[in-house]
Structures are given as structure tokens and as C-alpha cells.
Amino acid sequence: MATSWTPTSAGSAELQPEELGFLAGGPGRAAEVAIVTLVEAGAVRISRNGVVSPVRTQHRPWTPLEAYVLRAAPRSLGDLVSTVAGSTQAESLRQSLIGRGLVRSVGQRNAVRWARRLLVVAVIAAVLLSMGDLLSFGYVVATVVSAIVLSLLVGRAGRPLTGSGRAAVRRLDRVATTSNRPALVAYYGLLGKVEGHLVWETLGMAPTAAATLKRRPRRNNNGGSASCGGGGCGSCSSRSCGSASGSDGGSSCGSGSSCGGGGGCGGGGGGGD
Amino acid sequence: MVDKLGVGIGWRPEIDLTVEQLDVDFVEVVAENLHVGHLPESVLLLRERGVPVLPHAVSLSLGGAEPVDAGRVAHLGGLAEALGAPFVSDHVCFVRAGGLDSGHLMPLPRTREALDVLVANVKAAQADLPVPLALENVAALLEWPDGELTEGRFLAELVERTDCLLLVDVANLYANARNLGTDVGRFLDEIPLERLAYVHVAGGVEHQGVYHDTHAHAVLPEVLDVLKQLRDRIDPPGVLLERDDDYPADAELAGELAAIRAVLA
Ligand SMILES: [Fe+2]
């Protein structure tokens, strides 16, 4: 795995920056971390108009995600993020995080969704039955109260991250500073803001390059708050997603959607003699 | 003799920020990749800084039997005006024949007949261009039979008859010396160096005894030695590093530019 994790990350134990990025913002965020790590290592460069191209360098051990970035380049930054986010390497990263008990599987979260629907059905049924005088009001109250309690209980299990996953993101918060660029990107995303500045700006990226990044459409796929990081371009601020502060089971970190296109890379092509 | 340009590098979209940061006095752009209406931000920024930007064409096919495509000449001229370029360039070659595009810069047979065709095309292009035209020697892997002139004499007569400028690519010259036995010293003695616009330096690689002018490898010391032989005869107005693929780190490109400056010093 990566050799690129800096000593400042010691607080986050054995997790690699792109793994932390995945926890904080999904596969798109992990892709951003992989790209930024490669830029830091001098292995790719990003042009003014956002074309990420490999730099001829000494070979070194890359993470599978980084290796995929190098194979997929040259490509426009936004396009590259979504491509990498949709790669089998990103999916393996998810599986490995599920395996280590940091991310919940889609199956588990679907089960929670169904349990909640059943509770809603039970409450509606109780109300209807009481209206037909088939059930005493006491039972209705009991049903509603137990539905609320059960809903809160399963709600925890419906979150995209497990307790240890959320704890890792909390620890990431402490190392996500401008002196630790991979951690900064992992926590906030390139389009996130830190100390009033956009992260891509802080990293010295050209505005035209950042413009290739697409903010993921905000989708209400869990009847909750904005989903984040599920798909390709995930760059919403980590607040809305999986972070320690306000994760209320509504956000949908790590869902498998991916956002569209991203425009081909510009011009380029044959030089003359 | 044209105005002093200094040491430059080929501007390419992938390395635009690198080019902006390097210590270069001028740049060259591939004309076919730009549009007058929407020039890249990076190119405009270099122009604002006062860095000369020279359009370099690869598709006029001046040595071809067909008349020169007026649209391509107009594009090149329009670009020169948009960029305020002192001159433009293309190659002593043909890229199209019988309506087919070879995609390569094909060398010309060095016969009087081929020279006549080339001269007519160059004059036609010059008539429609707002700035002088410089012509570059190409690398050839094979030679046409029945050549009547050396490459140096061929270029010298071209300059005599069209008053064009010369763009000497020392990597191409090295390639021809290595692969075809061209006499570098004689070539440099035969061409009118006072009509030199600037010089190209590029990287390449030797593979199975043949030198390939790849523009994707480091510049060989042998190529710098050809530059040295040219420098011994004249202080060239400009020398430009061409890199078109497999771009190395900024520091490595800076190193190649420094090596060029060292030869010129
Ligand atoms: Fe050249």
C-alpha cells in the first residue's frame, strides 16, 4: 500500500489517506486524495486547464488507486476523479473498509431502510385500526412510541460508517491541516473549504483546472440530508457526510452512485518537428 | 539576421504551468492545435508577460505536388497576428500526397524538380502570410534515390530563391547524420546561417542502430554537440527545446534548458 502517508498522520493509526478520504467523502474523495498524493510525489502534473498527465519519474510502489490514476491519465481532472471513483480499485477499497468494520455494507443499510418502512407501515396500520375502533387508543400510543424507539435504534445501524469509521474521520479532522495536503483533501475534498479558502485554491490549483471538478448533485436518496461522496466527483464538504459532527443517519456516504461525464480533456496532440 | 530570441521551449497544453514557471525567453506553439478565437489562457498570459510566442505549423505540406491549402496558410497567418509573432514556420517536407494524409513529415527527394515545386509553394504561402516564413530541416529514415543536391545545398537554394528564413533542427540533423550519413559540418557550412531564425533541439533514442527523433526522450549529448558545431559558426538568435510526450519533471526540463544555455555561452 501507499508509502506516501506523512508522519503527521500518526494519529490516524494504520489508515491510509485515501482510505480516510473514502470514509470522509466516499470513492470520489478517495480518488481526489490519490491524485493529490501523486501530484505531491511529482508523479503527475495538472495543467492550467485541468489535464492531469503522468510525469516521467522513478517508479515507486503506488497504491492500487494511484496506479489506476496513472493508467487512466492523461485526462481532465474532473473526468479522472469520476473514472477512478467508479473503478474496481475504488470498489475494492470499499470492500476492504467494510471488511475492517469501518464502513457498512449496502445490504445492511438496505435492511435498515426496509425495517424503517415496516415501522411506518405498522404505525399507519395502528392509526387506521384505531379509527375503525378495532384498536384502543392505548395500543396506538404504544405502537407509535415503540416505533420511534426502534427507528432510533436501527437508525444508528443505517449510517454509512460504523462507530470506528466515524471515529477515524474524527481523528482525521485533527490532522487535516494545510501542512498535510493528502489529509486536508481527504477531510474536506478539493471543493471543500478550510479557513475560508477553497481547498483547491490552498493547494495552488488553477481555477480553470478546479472548474473541471463537478459538485455532485445533492440527492435525497435516503429521505435525509444531502448525500455525499457516493459517486465520482464527491467533493462536498465533509460536514454533510460521515464526519463526527452531524452525521444523523440521513447522509449516504459510500453509496455506489457515480456522477456523469466530466468533459474530455482538451486539445493536446501531435507536436511538430 | 532576425532579432534575438534567447532560449525557449515548445509550449504544450499538458505542461503549460511548467512552461510558465521555467526560465524561458520565448515559446513555440503548434499552430494546428490552436484557434485564433480562443487561445489558451496560458498562452495569453505568456504574451502579456512579453514572451514571444511563435506559431509552428506541421501541415502546410510545402513540398507536396498539390497547391498549398490557402485555409491552412490563413490560419497560420491569423495566429501570427493574434500572437504578434515575428515569424512563423513549417517544414521542408510533404505530409499529403494524392489527397492522402501521411500523418508524417515526409522528406523530399533532393532534385531540382522537387525544389521547383517547393519554391512555388513557399512563394504562394509567403504571399498570403503577414510575417516571414522559416523552414525547418526534417529527419528522414530513408533517402529518395537520384538526389542531385546535398541537404545543405538544397536548403541554400531554397533560401536563395524564396528569401525564406531557416529553422535548423539539430536533432534532425543529428538523426540524418546518424542514420543516413549526412555530413554535419558540410551541412552547416552550406546553409546560409545569416538567414537562421532559430534552432530546434529535441530528444530521441537509439534503437537497434537507428536514431529515432521521438521528442519523448532526453536530449542526447551528441545532439548538443551538433548545437556546439553550429554555435562555433554563429551565435543563433534563438534555440528552442522541443518535448512532445512523456514529459519529465520540471527540474529535468530546466536542466535540459540549462544544458542548452551552457553550449551557447
Ligand atoms: Fe523540430
UniProtKB/TrEMBL annotation, chain B:
InterPro entries: MbnB/TglH/ChrH (IPR007801), Xyl_isomerase-like_sf (IPR036237). It comes from the Bacteria. This is Uncharacterized protein. It comes from Saccharothrix tamanrassetensis. The lineage of its organism: Bacteria, Bacillati, Actinomycetota, Actinomycetes, Pseudonocardiales.
